[in-house]
Request: fold
Amino acid sequence: MSGPTGDLTPSDQGQPPVDPGDGGVHGGPGALLDPHDAVSRRTLFTISGAAALAGTTMGITAGGLAAQMTRTRRSPDTAPDTAPVPRLAPTDMTVTSGDLPHGLADPVPAFGTLLAFDVTPAARRTSHTTRAAASAFLRGTGPIPTQPSGGVGVSGLDLSPTNLQVTPGIGASLLDAVGLAGRRPEAFVDLPRFAVDRLDPRVCDGDLLVQVGAEDPMRLAGAVQQVLSLAGDGVRLRWSRSGFKATAAASQHPTGTPRNLMGHRDGSANPPLGTVRWDYTVRVPTPGWMRDGSYLVVRQIRIDLTRWFAEPADVRDRAIGRDTTSGAPLGGHGEFETADLSARDASGQPVIPRSAHLRLANQVNTRAARTYRRSWNYDDGFDGFDASGRRQAGLVFVAWQSDICRGSTPIQQSLDAGHDGLSDYLTHFGSAVFAIPARGDDDYPGQSLLES
Ligand code: HEM
Reply:
């Protein structure tokens, strides 16, 4: 395996050296279930890509299945270069969503807001009062997705029913404050300090998180207001960040990989939603209060778009390692083609440069780390220009994983060690990790922990 510097060795083939998600190829779905990777008792594995095609899969949400079906129907022969290519392979068998954090098994909505809260100093008097404040807040987020129009704010007035995802989570600082540090799972680690960190502590961390997502910005604004109305004496806002991507209505290919503000498709190498590989990547398999939950890493990353777009197109593509238009890895043709990391050009140089983001973030260089990226773009508009006239815009990087030690941490370490070609244009100013429990049999996510 090549090191993080991206040296090219014969084994540097773009395929992870260890990929439990490939069990479907080598030994059928059962091969995935080694004891370490045991899948939830609530998870019902289904059949095969063929069953997904037939639409017999149960449990995956309607939106998620619709996306899968759309992807499945398109023929690779007729698809234009820029269209998403179907990816159903034996490794991509559809699983049911079971009981995961709200919205995770659904397509990413066009608009999202992350709100981080702290328990107030007044409520923090004792661990008992802290627990009570956190429990009341988390319980309050439960009814929001189903609340009828006319609640706080503009939630549903005049709007057709549309998807709304309200996903609460818990920060490590809360566990400390309520005397439950001993129940912190091993997979729920803080991020180490990274070379790229330029962090502003005011927009990092938090005792509690709520991620709100909606396909409509008015619906989102109303739901955010409802979440904020839950804050009061017990809990107060610490930071928030809103983001967006192309809406389904405006997209030529609504189920295709969305683009970031740098122009590239972002998420091409994600495990396809609803597949065994996806489930393995996001779902916590171990017993305990986080079973069927997931860990969320949020990074607020400003992008110097002026500098980026001053570069010629080929320089930009080489920094990423992909072609802007098609999304194909350099040297390849289709977006979902495996990147050939060993390919060299006529002068003997790697086709995908040593410092390309794709190479350094690839599993061969990250000890087979796994995440499911579900980011939004952000743009602070006119008020967001800083004193030097730089636009304040970038990416709310949102990555889900079953284990942070085998997810975001080794990936960012590889990007740091290899001097990621993107990093010259980026400023990482916000960072946080949250445990996002599934609701399971609880009245609200985290109840079995906080009321234990
Ligand atoms: C503003 C910041 C970032 C931008 C604009 C960005 C953009 C991209 C783009 C365009 C791709 C290629 C398409 C794809 O597979 O999604 C990519 C791949 C990837 N990025 Fe990033 N990224 C950013 C930050 C990060 C960070 C902070 C991490 C993790 C710590 C990360 C992890 C990955 C991974 C794992 C891949 C897939 C690599 C592969 O092909 O195997 N990215 N990113």
Remarks:
- The chain has one domain: 1-452.
